Amino acid sequence: MTEKSVLIVGAGVFGLSTAYELLQDGYKVTIVEQSDQIPSESSSSTDISKIVRADYSSAVYSKLAAESIADLEKNWTEAGFFHQCGMVVLGESDYAKASYKHVKSMYPEQVRLLDQSSIQDVLPKNVPLNSLTRTAYQNKASGWIESGRATAELARRCEEMGATLIPNFTVGRVIWSGDNDRVVGVESASGEVLDAALTIIASGAWSTLLDDQINKMLLASAQSVAMIKLTEEQHERYKDSPIVINLNTGIYMFPPTSTRYFKVSKHHAGYISRERNAPVSIDTKREQLGEDEPPLSISKIPSVMYDELRNGLKEVYPEIANDSSLEWKTRMCWYCDAQNGDYIIDYHPLSNKSLLFATGGSGHAYKMYTVLGKLVKQRMDGTLDAEMSDMFSIQRDTEQVPVVDKSRLDTVRRDFSVAFMAEGQQQPK
Ligand SMILES: Cc1cc2nc3c(=O)[nH]c(=O)nc-3n(C[C@H](O)[C@H](O)[C@H](O)COP(=O)(O)OP(=O)(O)OC[C@H]3O[C@@H](n4cnc5c(N)ncnc54)[C@H](O)[C@@H]3O)c2cc1C
């Protein structure tokens, strides 16, 4: 391999964004992916939608997300997968207050506080809204991305730029040199070896399986998502609605897709499997939703999560929550949590810069669509800003199980158990 060559493990948004950035700088890039399709239906970077928001309590993430939004507007509009529908943030937590301050300073014209009457103007007309009395603001700069489609498009552009993409290649181990002072490549589960001057592990929640150091720093936490198929009449009324996130409960919801799927989920500590490293824990069985849909699959969620999602939805759109004729599809998706919710973009300390981790998305990395690759490149070039260099460092307290970031209210993770999983197509009560 030439000096400027790199091997990336994982074709999620971390891996592909990194590939995209390095290809522009003349690197020879090989990406290996365990799935036969991109996005992999088990990855975090699939699904019908992810929020793209600069609404963070951290100034660093706010700025990075604003950079991403500007890039999506400038370079990816013709791809048609970014929808800047705006977002309504409910809640009076410190996180909400700090977030408002950051976005108000970046988008003075697009951000405003809402009271009970102005909130009615922002949300869909003729919808029997519950009394939304709490503090709220609107940020018109936020939106959502068709994540499954956008991941496929990023992969397509990487291949067009010369990347070699190898599907069905599951890395079984990273190969260290005889002196154990550098990584020289990877070996697949079936024994195939690929040499590499630089290996980048971007395998999301599976990263823990490839290295002891990273295994101590990451935790896969399962989150529950529901997709509700609206009627045509409801779709017409809700299609121009903003994203709504309630920072008092963690419940968030999107406007319906063109195929009428309305998505609701909860950003919380989530569920963990006690079998921390077992691949089965991050690969709950799924079925495809249907041919007419972008990548989206269904699986069961804990029955208690049905109630939480439905009750959270009731607070905003009771009409949808209470309509027992609507079909609910569900899925579980795994966050890859790192300590304090900060991404890990750093070299293995003993690898002499031959092994780099780009992972630890912690439930909020998708929106950094092309920014992630820029951060990786800056780490490689030694130009990462000092504050981010610390934030994304691998040198963290590895004694503790990763602590969730402040955007999630609960801190205690629940136990993942098949016993309380509900049926995937259960109707709301
Ligand atoms: C329910 C849910 C909602 C979310 N909502 C948002 C949101 O609204 N906004 C936002 O910004 N972010 C959101 N996120 C977070 C975001 O999706 C993730 O942070 C991001 O997608 C992580 O990307 P990744 O590349 O690290 O991991 P992944 O997308 O999981 O990619 C890792 C890839 O590596 C492959 N792989 C794993 N092991 C191997 C191996 N040994 N060999 C080869 N390949 C391998 C996998 O198959 C996979 O394709 C959400 C996540 C979930 C689960």
From TrEMBL:
GO molecular function: flavin adenine dinucleotide binding; L-pipecolate oxidase activity; proline dehydrogenase activity; sarcosine oxidase activity
InterPro entries per UniProt: FAD-dep_OxRdtase, FAD/NAD-bd_sf, MTOX
Family: Belongs to the MSOX/MTOX family.
Domain FAD dependent oxidoreductase, first and last residues per copy: 6-378
A UniProt-annotated Pfam family: DAO
Keywords: FAD, Flavoprotein, Oxidoreductase
Required cofactor names: FAD
Protein name: L-pipecolate oxidase
